[in-house]
Amino acid sequence: MKKGFNKDITIFSKISHIDRLLFTKHLSVMIKAGIPIAEAVESLSGQSKTPAFKKVLLAMLADINNGQSISKAMAKHPKAFSGFYLSLIEIGEESGTLEKNLEFLSVQLAKDNSLRKKVQGALLYPGIVLAATAIIGLAISLFILPQLVGFFDAFNSELPLATKILLFLANATANYGWLILIGIAALVSAFLALIKTPKIKPIWHKALLSFPLIGPILRSINLARFSRNLGTLLSSGVPISRSLQVTANTLDNLLFSSSLLSSGKHLQKGQSLAKSLEKVPDHLFPSIVTKMVAVGEKTGKLEETLLYLGEFYEDEVDQFSKNLSTILEPILLVVIGLVVGFVAMAIISPIYELTGTLR
After folding, report:
1. What is the C-alpha to C-alpha distance for residues 107 and 297, in angstroms, rounded to an integer?
2. What is the number of domains present in the chain?
């Protein structure tokens, strides 16, 4: 690499979850077959179809050929490999179980990818329905109503309030459409920037957990990831204090993340994990989690208990995503009914009044 070259090539590029998953799975198979790490990375870099990830692998290959370990080479690319990923790779190198940890990682990445797909799939249907409703309403306002306005004006007919509102929206969209889009984009960008600020982000993440429909699924996703990732790290021999810190960085919700970090401080004072989780405010960790963790600590099978909890909450997310369409369908029907009713009233009412006047 050239001198001064940015070590983290992925800063302005997006490495997909599938890229990471396939790389991990193939690397595990190749190392298990006895292929040297450098040769395996070189082969996989040639097979990669994503330019950004290909550059990452080539940079890693150069570092490995210069005598660095694969974990050190990966650590230079934090946007491509998370702290959770790096911890398992480091432990695998130290304990001589790299291929086993890679295989374990590929399974966990596959589960994580499956979880993402289920949530995205559940939100796809309502998104399409609402978008289609908005497009149809806009098309009627822009192309049908303006044609009728001239007809009504010819008879000096007073337009109903619903028609006036719809015409106002149609004219505003036709005359100032670009300005409205720019304004909406600016407001959305300002809102997204605001909720990322250090003061607002914790408040926003706490609010998300209290929202209907969204809150329960977010809670289950974070509990599934917490249980699975912590159980995986403990199974690989990572100390519990370090495992908690790494797991906290893998969680999307800041409230869960900060709670785990504070639990780690309680552990350092000699408290059990179950007791420290019970002290977490806002009841983030349900009693089923704290009780099973307590049983796992007493029996010496904490990692097995956590992995079971991970599967339990993944099943909950799966079930919720399957039922989400059924839950949202009545709400969507009401929204669509109101929109269609408003548009129909705006169009039919003046025609009905005009017909009455002519009679």
Report:
1. 25
2. 2
Please check whether residues 221 and 353 belong to one and the same domain: yes
Tokens of 171: 């004219």
Q: Can you tell me the distance from the alpha carbon of 281 to that of 291, in angstroms, rounded to the nearest whole number?
A: 16
- Dihedral in degrees, nearest 10, Cα atoms 341, 342, 343, 346: 120
Quick one: 42 exposed, middle or buried, by C-beta within 10 A (0-12, 13-18, 19+)?
Answer: middle
Within a domain: 209: yes
**What's the CA gap between 37 and 291, in Å, rounded?**
43
Could you report the per-residue pLDDT of 129-185, keeping only the tens digit for each?
778 877 876 777 667 766 666 666 665 667 778 777 777 777 777 677 788 889 989
For residue 41, the enclosing domain spans 9-81
- Same domain, residue pair 46 and 167: no
The C-alpha atoms of residue 290 and residue 296 are separated, in whole angstroms, by 10
Residues 37 and 120 occupy one common structural domain:
no
List, for residues 63-107, the tens digit of each pLDDT value: 999 988 898 999 898 888 887 788 788 878 877 778 888 887 888
d(CA 132, CA 141): 14
Residue 88 lies in a domain: no
Residues 6+ apart with CB under 8 A from 230: 243, 244, 247, 306
Collapse the DSSP code of 220 into the 3-class scheme (helix H, G, I; strand E, B; otherwise coil) and give the result: helix
- Neighbouring CB atoms inside 10 A of 285's CB total 24
Residues 34 and 163 in one domain: no
